[in-house]
């Protein structure tokens, strides 16, 4: 009997895209349920009563919340596919560190580019560019963050590539000019079917975010 796997998600969410990419990498069949966050479904509220947000993976009736926790869960449960996290404990800890760094920095500092004005906006721009440079330094000349194998840190970051256009437009800078290796890495990731199928046109993402957040 096939396992029941359901993903409660929102198409534009980079956090949900992480889960979609991980499931695709593992070849897991699942039911996708798009959520209306302005009118949250009883299932979402039941599955994530603490945070009441997407994504939520429901596996055989048991909910798992928070995107990077979901990615780790997928890696552990469907372990017969290529691993998303390295086997070595130190390398695994490092991957989790960078996943946590991305979680705490990219969205929070990126959204400041349209939330703040004047001097605060310029400072936010400076901070965000520095975050990109830190990530680029960690990537170095490697194919992927973990080396030759696409994995956990790549999954944590690559959905935000669809948001780069928005960050650039609101921040008045070029990601490629500031972090060219990071942009080249994003293009390599997009060559993977798991990523390209979860990816959306950056201009479409910009229009949705512009409407949602009301920025100019």
UniProtKB/TrEMBL annotation:
Its EC number is 2.5.1.18. Residues 88-215 form the GST C-terminal domain. Residues 3-82 form the GST N-terminal domain. One of its GO terms (cellular component) is cytoplasm. InterPro entries: Glutathione-S-Trfase_C-like, Glutathione_S-Trfase, Glutathione_S-Trfase_N, GST_C, GST_C_Tau, Omega/Tau-like. GO terms for biological process: glutathione metabolic process. It catalyses: RX + glutathione = an S-substituted glutathione + a halide anion + H(+). One of its GO terms (molecular function) is glutathione transferase activity. Belongs to the GST superfamily. Conjugation of reduced glutathione to a wide number of exogenous and endogenous hydrophobic electrophiles. This is Probable glutathione S-transferase GSTU1. It comes from Zingiber officinale (Ginger).
């Amino acid at each position: 009997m096939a396992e029941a796997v359901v993903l409660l998600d929102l198409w534009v969410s980079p956090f949900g895209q992480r889960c979609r990419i991980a499931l695709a990498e593992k070849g897991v069949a699942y039911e996708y349920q798009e959520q209306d966050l302005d009118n949250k479904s009883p299932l979402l509220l039941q599955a994530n009563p603490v945070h009441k947000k997407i994504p939520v993976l429901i596996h055989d009736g048991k909910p798992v919340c928070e995107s990077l926790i979901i990615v780790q869960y997928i890696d552990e449960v469907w372990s017969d596919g290529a691993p998303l996290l390295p086997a070595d404990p130190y390398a695994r800890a490092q991957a989790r560190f960078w996943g946590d760094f991305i979680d705490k920095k990219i969205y929070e500092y990126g959204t400041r580019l349209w939330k703040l004005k004047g001097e605060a906006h310029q400072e936010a721009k400076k901070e965000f560019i520095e975050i990109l440079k830190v990530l680029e330094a960690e990537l170095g000349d490697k194919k992927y963050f973990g080396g030759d194998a696409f994995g956990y840190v790549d999954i944590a970051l690559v959905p935000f590539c669809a948001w780069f256009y928005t960050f650039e437009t609101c921040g008045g800078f070029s990601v490629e000019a500031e972090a060219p290796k990071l942009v080249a890495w994003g293009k390599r990731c997009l060559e993977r079917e798991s990523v390209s199928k979860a990816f959306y046109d950056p201009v479409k993402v910009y229009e949705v975010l512009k409407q949602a957040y009301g920025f100019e």
